[in-house]
Design goal:
- This protein is an all-alpha fold and 185 residues long.
- It folds into 2 domains: 88 residues, Rna Polymerase Sigma Factor, Chain: A; 90 residues, Winged helix-like DNA-binding domain superfamily/Winged helix DNA-binding domain (Arc Repressor Mutant, subunit A, Orthogonal Bundle), CATH 1.10.10.
- It is 72% helix and 0% strand.
- The protein contains 9 helices and no strands.
């Protein structure tokens, strides 16, 4: 109950453009939301751009939030959508892959997260092609279905599945390469 009241008070103070409240809101959500940006971006500079754009949108649209209890989810949704918009505007996003290029959708290895640390996984995810990175994040990290991803990214459900397969395959290849390097070194 205290958290809901805190959010309610913070939202109202931010709507009144109180700098103290804006800083408090930023401090409360910035660390976690920057990590979300890093997952979608190819590098830290791009993540910083996404992050800044997202927080501008957050401050500009706080008056639209329906319930203060929804604040954390609402902020994360804005960050995710801002990340998607950023990647869409990137020329690299223009790659197209049809369902015909999809393979069997079995995951290469379900233990990817057990073999590497969080920073190593983040680094590998950042190296994925933009659309594969987006689909991977939306499906694996955010829990969206392929239908939801298709609607969100304006691609077919099959293309979403194909992109996820390609992302998993690329991650598995990078992990295998990492393991070989460690065995040699």
């Amino acid at each position: 109950m205290k958290e809901k009241q805190l959010y309610h008070d913070l939202i109202n103070a931010c709507i009144r453009n109180e700098a103290r409240a804006q800083k408090e809101l930023y401090d409360l959500f910035a660390p976690a939301m920057f990590k979300v940006c890093l997952r979608y971006a190819q590098d830290e500079a791009a993540a910083q751009d996404i992050f800044q754009d997202a927080f501008v949108k957050i401050y500009q649209n706080l008056h639209r939030i329906e319930s203060s209890a929804h604040l954390p989810g609402w902020i994360k949704k804005i960050v995710v959508y801002t990340s998607i918009d950023y990647l869409r505007s990137s020329a690299k996003y223009a790659q197209h892959q049809s369902i015909e290029s999809a393979y069997s959708l079995a995951a290469p290895d379900p233990t990817i997260h057990q073999q590497l640390g969080a920073e190593e996984i983040l680094s590998l995810v950042q190296q994925l092609p933009p659309r594969s990175r987006m689909v991977f994040n939306l499906y694996v990290m955010e829990g969206y279905s392929h239908k939801e991803i298709g609607d969100l990214l304006e691609i077919s459900e099959g293309t979403s599945k194909s992109q996820l397969f390609e992302a998993k395959k690329a991650l598995q290849k990078a992990i295998d390469k990492n393991e070989r390097t460690q065995m040699i070194g």
